[in-house]
Design brief:
It is a single chain. By secondary structure, the chain is an all-beta fold. The radius of gyration is 30 Å and the shape is elongated.
Length: 610
């Protein structure tokens, strides 16, 4: 994983009456990818924590990494860094996935095509994991059928109350074909034929969504093939019955269009947006599965090739805006945010007219200290939107390729754009107290890190009282100034042996705002007198251990303290002969065993927990 890069992007003034000043921060916390998908996934049903699911090619060269991957990453809100938590072990090149949540599980359906390579990394897959915050995914379906130029969406195809996957593409079933991965409702799937009314695909797109108040997802199918294009809406009438109810028109789309189903005009009905090289079309939902076409001449949205247009309210004016990424020859083709006008044809909001494109910028690939930011302009790209930092402003993740799309010419990138619009750039400082280290009988090293802040005056306080604070306790001055993402430490001496101390790190910015870290606890070693442990037998076994250890001593034991190698106390026990370590993390622990013999005998043993 590459080192996180922070870049503050250009501050742009939007001068019309319905947009406002925007500011974004671009980071690269995840693996680079293109020719795939990105999506925020909720692994924990009890929180809003999001993880990034990323598929696609990861290299611009002709080597094996260019076959790509499907991986899941967590995202740290404090540091802005991503951590890989699950590798699904499949090829990502030419792949598509779909995600849904059901009965406490998250399900991922996947289809990939990498002709001529190990088939074990291709074909159809379904995984699921409990939404308990852990990424313990289990593969519950696999099939070697390869769908090229593929598409996949989640939909209850037979109205049995369980969500299925509809997959399409060119396969051994036909040049244009499809299949359903049917959810049996017991954690298993089986491949079956799709309803005959739903056309097979090749370079086309399936997208399910709610288009009326029936409570059932309907299906939109669009695409182009051999110079012809088509688009249809299929109504889910229940009990596995599907009927074509609306024709989106012919000759309007190119290959690989992208579809969004969302209420763009705020009238309570989800509309349909189709973006392709033929333009971005919006089909306004009139009710009863009837629609009215607003083409790109009306909407002002760009045509995108190998791209996507998605919608959210970036400037908090109550109207959905559009973000576009993709290739086109036009000057505002990709990497822009478009603002929906509040001056509709009859003076009402929800005009479906988008104006004042705002250019998104990204850091240069080389020598950022010398080169200016460059426009976001990528092909084979995807976007997913969410409020990743829970601040009320919408953010997004985008992947794609600079340069040519072919292997050997591509320059894959994955960015997270954090919307910092309206935030005070002078953020309050945040400081973290780290565990004390090098703790012995009368000294210790206090440690801390600055999470947020510039030019901070920092210090420590410590005390034997647990109510230590930034104004209470023995004062220890730190370095002159410390900045964000920097650490500092100070050595303290003259401590009492065998004593528990409490310490806190503090920092004050130039505005006089004080940040307090959490209180950390440490205990100094005891000065040993005549140590009868040296000449008496003491055994701790088994070592290493996976669970319980036994203690056999010829001396009576007063107490046992357990420390991490960093000096943090993690356990206190009395006169016991067995200690259960099954809940402890794997690692090395120090056991300080004090004898109850009146002369302060103590011995330290290293125990390895596996």
């Amino acid at each position: 994983m590459k080192k996180l890069l922070y870049y503050m992007l250009m501050l742009v003034m939007i001068t019309n009456t319905f947009a406002q000043e925007l500011e974004f921060q671009a980071t690269e916390p995840f693996i680079d990818s293109y020719a795939g998908q990105v999506q925020w996934v909720e692994l924990d049903a009890e929180s809003n924590t999001k993880s990034a699911l990323i598929t696609g090619r990861n290299s611009g060269s002709f080597d094996t990494p260019n076959l790509g991957s499907l991986k899941l990453f967590t995202y740290d809100l404090l540091t802005g860094q991503g951590t890989e938590v699950f590798d699904f072990g499949v090829y990502g090149a030419g792949s598509s996935f779909s995600v849904f949540y059901e009965n406490g599980y998250v399900y991922i359906g996947f289809t990939a095509q990498v002709i001529g390579f190990d088939p074990s990394g291709q074909g159809l897959r379904v995984w699921r994991a409990l939404r308990d915050g852990d990424a313990n995914f289990v593969e519950i379906f696999t099939d070697s059928t390869i769908f090229s130029n593929n598409t996949i969406t989640d939909i209850d195809i037979d109205d049995d109350g369980h969500t299925d996957f509809l997959v399409g593409g060119a396969s051994n079933f036909g040049f244009t074909s499809n299949r359903v991965l049917h959810n049996n409702g017991d954690g298993t799937f089986v491949m079956i034929a799709a309803p005959t009314v739903i056309p097979g695909t090749n370079s086309n797109t399936y997208q399910s969504g709610y288009l009326d108040d029936s409570g059932r997802k309907h299906l939109v199918v669009t695409g182009g093939l051999n110079g012809q294009s088509f688009g249809y809406v299929y109504e889910n009438q229940g009990n596995g019955v599907w009927v074509q109810v609306y024709d989106l028109g012919t000759g309007l789309f190119s290959n690989f269009p992208t579809i969004e189903i969302i209420d763009i005009d705020n009238d309570g009905l989800n509309d349909i947006s189709v973006a392709s090289l033929g333009g971005t079309k919006i089909y306004k939902n009139l009710g009863n599965l009837d629609f009215e076409l607003y083409d790109n001449l009306v909407t002002g949205l760009p045509a995108v090739f190998q791209g996507v247009v998605k919608y959210t309210d970036f400037n908090n004016d109550g109207l959905l805006d559009a973000v576009a990424s993709g290739l086109n020859s036009g000057p505002t083709a990709s990497g822009h945010i478009y603002f929906q006008s509040n001056e509709g044809p009859v003076g009402e909001p929800g005009s479906l007219e988008f104006v004042n494109p705002y250019q998104l910028m990204v850091p240069p690939f080389e020598f950022p200290e010398f080169n200016p930011d460059i426009p976001l302009r990528m092909g084979q790209t995807d976007i997913d939107i969410c409020d990743i930092d829970n601040d009320g402003d919408m953010d997004f993740i985008v992947n794609g390729s600079y340069g040519g799309g072919a292997a050997g010419l591509a320059a894959p990138r994955t960015y997270v754009f954090t919307n910092t619009t309206g935030e005070d750039n002078d953020q309050d400082p945040v400081i973290e107290t780290n565990p004390a280290t090098n703790v012995d009988e009368n000294s210790a090293v206090l440690n801390a890190s600055v999470i947020v802040g510039q030019d901070l005056n920092v210090w420590f306080r410590y005390s034997t009282a647990s109510d230590v604070s930034c104004s209470n306790g023995t004062f220890v001055n730190g370095p002159d100034t410390i900045n964000e993402n920097e650490s500092f430490n100070e050595t303290i001496t003259g401590l009492n042996d065998n004593t528990t101390y409490y310490c806190i790190a503090c920092g004050e910015d130039t505005n006089g705002t004080v940040a307090e870290g959490t209180v950390q606890e440490f205990t100094t070693d005891e000065v040993m007198s005549v140590n009868e442990f040296d000449k008496n037998s003491l055994k701790i076994f088994p070592n290493p251990t996976q669970s319980t250890i036994s203690i056999d001593s010829s001396l009576p034991i007063e107490k046992i303290h357990v420390y991490t190698m960093a000096g943090q106390i993690v356990g206190r026990f009395g006169n016991v002969s067995n200690i259960d370590l099954s809940a402890y993390d794997a690692g090395i622990y120090l056991f300080r065993i004090h004898a109850d013999n009146g002369n302060g005998s103590m011995i330290t043993k290293k125990i390895i927990k596996q």
